[in-house]
Amino acid sequence: MATLKLEIITPESKIFDDNVDEVLLPGSEGDMGILPKHENLVTDLKAGELRYKRNGQVETLAIGEGFAEITGDSVAVLTDAAVREADIDVQVAEEAVKRAEELLKSNTLEGEELEATQAALARSLAQIHIKRRHRG
Fold first, then answer.
1. Positive or negative: CA dihedral 34, 127, 29, 75
2. I need a labelling partner for 132 at 20 to 30 A (CA). Which of 6, 51, 93, 122 fits?
3. Are both 34 and 46 inside the same structural domain?
């Protein structure tokens, strides 16, 4: 069976590097499924759920914004954050959401500060969504 080489890279480290059967990405225009021999493509990613299937097992990560480069036999994801579902702490994510929402309500943020706070909010909400959806 054909596979894809999946690499997930953040500014801190390479989070994942292995062959997988398929990948589901949170594209800026909607979720996109990637199978081996996919057409070449570069796409923006939004904060959300990245899933991959390997050896019959589905793994889930919460990722931040970034982009993916897709070729027929590989997917390279460059993102500002990636957290495995098992490592998500909902309480920490909820506290981060509250802090970000308070900062955004203050209307004092501009430029890079505003963008960073909005990105942190999106990452934290994605983590909460993944953890809650997979609990039930």
1. negative
2. 6
3. yes
Which position has the token pair 């490592």? 87
pLDDT in tens, 49-59: 999 999 989 99
Gap between the Cα atoms of 14 and 119, Å rounded: 20
- How far is the C-alpha of 123 from the C-alpha of 64, rounded, in Å? 5
Tokens 């909607």 locate to: 30
CA atoms within 13 A on the CB side of 19: 7
Q: Are residues 100 and 55 in the same domain?
A: no
Instruction: Please count the CA atoms within 13 angstroms of the CA of 134 that sit on its side-chain side.
Output: 18
pTM (2 decimals)? 0.84
Distance from C-alpha of 48 to C-alpha of 64, rounded to nearest angstrom: 7
> Are 115 and 60 in a shared domain?
no
Does 24 lie in the same domain as 77? yes
Q: How far apart are CA 122 and CA 131, in angstroms?
A: 14
